[in-house]
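Sorry to interrupt, but I need a hand with the structure work. Could you add the entry underneath, on a fresh line?
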Amino acid sequence: MAAAAAAAVGGPQPPQPELPAPGLALDKAATAAHLKAALSRPDNRAGAEELQALLERVLSAERPLAAAADGEEAAAAGGGGGPGAAEEEALEWCKCLLAGGGGYDEFCAAVRAYDPAALCGLVWTANFVAYRCRTCGISPCMSLCAECFHQGDHTGHDFNMFRSQAGGACDCGDSNVMRESGFCKRHQIKSSSNIPCVPKDLLMMSEFVLPRFIFCLIQYLREGYNEPAADVPSEKDLNKVLQLLEPQISFLEDLTKMGGAMRSVLTQVLTNQQNYKDLTSGLGENACAKKSHEKYLIALKSSGLTYPEDKLVYGLQEPSAGTSTLAVQGFAGATGTLGQLDSSDEEDQDGSQGLGKRKRVKLSSSTKDQSIMDVLKHKSFLEELLFWTIKYEFPQKMVTFLLNMLPDQEYKVAFTKTFVQHYAFIMKTLKKSHESDTMSNRIVHISVQLFSNEELARQVTEECQLLDIMVTVLLYMMESCLIKSELQDEENSLHVVVNCGEALLKNNTYWPLVSDFINILSHQSVAKRFLEDHGLLVTWMNFVSFFQGMNLNKRELNEHVEFESQTYYAAFAAELEACAQPMWGLLSHCKVRETQEYTRNVVRYCLEALQDWFDAINFVDEPAPNQVTFHLPLHRYYAMFLSKAVKCQELDLDSVLPDQEMLMKLMIHPLQIQASLAEIHSNMWVRNGLQIKGQAMTYVQSHFCNSMIDPDIYLLQVCASRLDPDYFISSVFERFKVVDLLTMASQHQNTVLDAEHERSMLEGALTFLVILLSLRLHLGMSDDEILRAEMVAQLCMNDRTHSSLLDLIPENPNPKSGIIPGSYSFESVLSAVADFKAPVFEPGGSMQQGMYTPKAEVWDQEFDPVMVILRTVYRRDVQSAMDRYTAFLKQSGKFPGNPWPPYKKRTPLHPSYKGLMRLLHCKTLHIVLFTLLYKILMDHQNLSEHVLCMVLYLIELGLENSAEEESDEEASVCGPERCHDSWFPGSNLVSNMRHFINYVRVRVPETAPEVKRDSPASTSSDSLSSLHNSGTAQVFSLVAERRKKFQEIINRSSSEANQVVRPKTSNKWSAPGSAPQLTTAILEIKESILSLLIKLHHKLSGKQNSYYPPWLDDIEILIQPEIPKYNHGDGITAVERILLKAALQSRMNKRIIEEICRKVTPPVPPKKITAAEKKTLDKEERRQKARERQQKLLAEFASRQKSFMETAMDVDSPENDIPMEIATAEPQVSEAVYDCVICGQSGPSSEDRPTGLVVLLQASSVLGQCRDNIEPKKLPITEEEQIYPWDTCAAVHDVRLSLLQRYFKDSSCLLAVSIGWEGGVYVQTCGHTLHIDCHKSYMESLRNDQVLQGFSVDKGEFTCPLCRQFANSVLPCYPGSNVESNLWQRPSNKSIQDLIKEVEELQGRPGAFPSETNLSKEMESVMKDIKNTTQKKYRDYSKTPGSPDNDFLFMYSVARTNLELELIHRGGNLCSGGASTVGKRSCLNQLFHVLALHMRLYSIDSEYNPWRKLTQLVEEMNSQQGNEEQQPEVPILYHDVTSLLLIQILMMPQPLRKDHFTCIVKVLFTLLYTQALVALSVKCNEEDRLAWKHTGALKKNACDAEKSYEVLLSFVISELSKGKLYHEEGAQECAMVSPIAWSPESMEKYLQDFCLPFLRITSLLQHHLFGEDLPSCQEEEEFSVLSSCLGLLPTFYQTEHPFISASCLDWPVPAFDIISQWCFEINSFTERHAEQGKALLIQESRWKLPHLLQLPENYNTIFQYYHRKTCSVCTKVPKDPAVCLVCGTFVCLKGLCCKQQSYCECVLHSQNCGAGTGIFLLINASVIIIIRGHRFCLWGSVYLDAHGEEDRDLRRGKPLYICKERYKVLEQQWISHTFDHINKRWGPHYNGL
């Protein structure tokens, strides 16, 4: 056989593989077995050649792709044996050969047995649900598949579930990425030890077959690739090829899943260079192979890559001797010369996108070796496979195959090197790709698996220059979109920046590369190499400088900008991702002293780059006006490395700082940003549109602030601490454009700022100074202190949820930095500063999340307004924080008024930054403070309390940080005389505070009031100020000051800089004073800062001499200055605190304060009352008056409101006015009066102008959901737990009705039961009434209102004009005077027989429809509304469509539904009694009128009226038997008694008389009782029946026999025994019957329970019709109380002996006669249908309250079961699965697959399950969605995490637990039908859910 097979193979029969003959499978197996044997011999050359020949034939790539190449597979495939067939054939051959003759499946199993499964390595694609555990992860990218996660032990860990964005792979078992403790049970055992060695022959065939197979695949890929034409994207063609190759790639993927043994074979094949060389060199005589090789070379060339001759390629050590010659020969045929670099790349970029944009700048970066970008050389299958994978833009299948191989260590290294080698090529492909998003995801899917492993990353960095490649590739990528920078000097600028409008930035195309870079920098070994390599640092700074100054904003001064560009998103994202995150990565490795060198390197190159930048933009000393860029990454690199150096590495700050001139340049741009922020908030940029506000917000927003504003402020702090303070302060005011405002004169001219912006700009400048001087984030705070300060600031603005806190607190963006969100320190700080408020509900239904709120001591001691201002994105948050602070002070009684922001003590400064405090002690600042205090005191314009607050804050900061104990007498005389030496003698604030300034010379406009005065001739000095020699102060100009300082600094540095600067200064600057119309005036001031403060105190308190130095009364104050009473308060407190501190700091100040006070106040003998007390008393008095005024106003308002509410809310329906004393002399004629809430008039409802109640009609199936068992139904979470709705109330009633309809006359069936258990109409009202004509005009106005409402006016929906409750109809009120009801209620003494006759007569009268009045029309229309509320299937039960019986049934069922629902709302019984729980909100009375009016139209033929059967004995018993042909009527014992009650009452003319009502109830009770006895007799067994029959018969002749249940029961049994009802009871029946022994007590209980539902409904009805209150009672006495309330119990009934239900009976005709008549009907039916007859008798009357399904404790159980569950309709896994919480049905939300007649599945289900109301849990979002008719709303979630928060869309993926209270609320809203009222956000769903 083997020989024959060999001959067959050897023989020339090429067509063989194509003809699938029946015997071929056998042949293949035999051939394979033979070849395997041949290859197993020691000398296997023959076998090998034979196999090669076979493979050559089977796998030849010619046939299939000849067709594919022309793109005409369809034509070829027409023949049937097209390419598809051949390829399948080839695959079959491969499988056979691999298995070596055995079965392929057995082979797979055999190989799997040798799998040393140490790693999981499961690869997944986007949208897969995976887990991440931070406790177990070493790398932040670690992820686990669900199976490994649940099999491992992660209890108490910080983990979350997430939906994979890009795809990923499971890391279980990989100890490089995660800790071994987290491995799952399968991967814990290092099982490689006990796995046996793989037998050689098992995989021998694979080693031969697979190389050919993979080569064949590569040939296909080569053949299929056509270079896309210049303009036409060719995804189509590529996808075709990929579809063809699907089976091959899947086959490879399956091989990888066979485990380790097969993977190592594949690794050998993929990396073996010899194999590759032999097969692909294209040198064979095979034309096909040649052709494919040529295509490969063309593809290489068109990618802009050269094929190296003898160049040494990165990462491949030695070029093998043979390759060069081969390569050259190969080239000769394919192309001419390929030596030079192909320029196609640049052209296609410029050509396609250059239009209409600023011309791009192309840099010739010859800095790096060109070869990184342009050389590729493939030496193995793996390398070429990756090349094609990239060429085809990363097809998912290929990616999965390549990743599935990763558990093989050898492969992992080889693949990583290959990936790095292709890195530049990946970038080029990505840039050209049309699907860059998908492609990015797939690239990261691969790279994150490779680069997260530190060992691997280090190896590749060393061997393949990974860092060089990455940096170069990033640089090249960004170079393609550079434009000339317009910052500063537009014409001559040499700087280039990225253009943020480019697709590359707009679409974040760069993120895969950047994220790889960040990933590898997180490894210490790699980052160290980077920081040590000077060349790399230079290149990187070059890269960062592309972003410096991008997205420049120019302020629009004339008209509003036409087009608001949104490029700023791209700019901020780019700076954060491409610059800041790598920076944080590097910083995380500079934590210890040993790393000082790295910092020095970075700082050095950073400064060089900055210097280059200043030169490039031609910057000298003045920033160009009206432009700002928020992007200064170089400044921020510099700042953050400085901060790190001082904080962690103990570097000396001065050693890394540049000279003064550079510092002055460095501070300009960050300062410009701060000033621009103030301008933007002052609306000066309003013409630039909203986007500029967006930039200002993003700059301080929590994800950006620590990479943007924090470094900027820190850099300014560093500059301020090293530069001359006077220069710095004057720069600040000049940048903020408020210099001209700082004059003593009351008027001034501002050349650079409009008056309306002055105030907010001044506030901005002062606030900036306060932040600059009090912020300590980088100046000495520890990490924990920073975290605490951030947290307090966020909590003070608002209560926060745990997740929003995590989000709002800027964590160090690099995950390895240690402050991981949710880390230990976060939780401990949180519990220290905040209290947890558990989630609560507000009655309005809005649901709260669990919130954290600051503790009291935090408000008291840690509230820091400065930090709040720094961190607020919206200005309103600052106000919110202050309001909360005020509320806290009021509540705790610390301060009653409106407090000022408290002054907070700061943490000590780090010694390196001590110089910062010099700002507080410089004359310039003191002059500014003095001037502002003076202006505030004189009430000059444009100053605010905020300005004063900041001025005082700065003074206080100065006092707190006064440098040395004051050098009182020595005025510091330094250097030459300066213009402001005449203001203050020294620079220390403490001594300058008391310095008196007498005169000031000011420049004022000629119109100013100051000009008129004569200037004083002599400078007579005051007694006090004679301490200091003071002449006239000079004019003080900040600008001049600054120029002078700048000049000095420049002069100190080189002299040539001098020449450059001087001319600029002279021509550009004219001092602001030079405008001609200014004139000089001299003001007399005679104040010092101290005296100004004291006068300010008087001004603020509104009283003369209010300040009295506290230490005069209590000398202690000076010793222990920390007095809590000064901590919180308003401006007065602040002034007192400052004066106290000033007095403390120096004796001189203390003395001067006392003197000033004495001078202002003539000394009086010391009073007992201190000034402070007096102040509070006085304040109290004023406050008291204000309070009284307010009280009066409020009272007046309240009374108005009350009267309005009374008129509006009081709806007197007739029953409320019934006078209870019936014995009043004459009847008062009073009609019910209604108020119309639209026109406001009151009056009765009349025939022609009826009034109506605002009602909401809705179909409801809540009743149908009652079940008869106590055990609640659970939501199914396994396959076994499915729910079948056969035990619901609706199902049982349905079965009953259809059973009756089978055997009885249809019209009679429809009177025997009620419908409406499903789809019944429920009517509810808010209790407000309106005229029906007013309502119509109201609806018209709504119709014309164009506002988008949440409801549809066309469907008649509206909201009540008064209370805004949702409604959709108006129920007319029946006009009627209350006199009638009085008369109707008088008890009459007629006998029951007379009453029965009256009832019958009244029912017999035809109900003529009242004449066509407006009222009757309205009644008709509301009836129509009621019908249209529910679907047709819920109202048509008749066999004859359109029969009037249907309407009849429907109408009385509406009444039934509403009564039953009210009963459920009361908890299922009437024990609580009292008025209706809904009070005036009940509309049953009006509803009854409408229903009765319509029911009377259908008079029942008196023959059929059940009333007859109940109250009269029929003579001829056998009449019915005669007419066999037509179906009999329903026997009276099968009737539902409650339905009968409603029919009887609605058939009577309204209003009804009370005694008629009682009569009807009494009669029906006899029937009900008989039914109870019959049911009881059927339930018990034969012996019991006989015993009862016997005992009852003995008592039959007693006097009260008709009221003894024993007698009646015995009679029933004997009557029914005549029929077949009790017969044919087999043993199986007995099993069903409960085996309890019936005692008299249990029988009595059974009978009472049977009758109770009827009594409850009847009592409710009586309560609504006659307005009688329901008595309350205990549960056990409910029966007796209700029966006496209904008048069933005779009044003389004695209550001593135990209550017997039978005593309520009052038989209208002799009991035994009527019972036997009723039983006769049953017997005649059971003759034929005994089974059904019995089933119909046993009614289940005890329904439990309806409930939603019970949900499991943990959400994960629901999620794991349902999110992968397939839909029962379309058998796919739905994209948005949902489950109905009423019945547990699984549905697809929005699934088009399950759409029926344009209704999606959820909407359809809501109609079938809830008659239009659906409650669905969305599995993937954990939220509940409510569908109500045509609208829907998101209700919220009933699952909360450990911090009491929802997790909508499972974004955070934390474990969620059921919140029982919320679920209760949901259920309550469902049962009470209040979804429409409580939930506010409804929208239409257009049937698409």
The chain has a mean pLDDT of 78. Residues 122 and 170 are 5 Å apart (CA to CA).
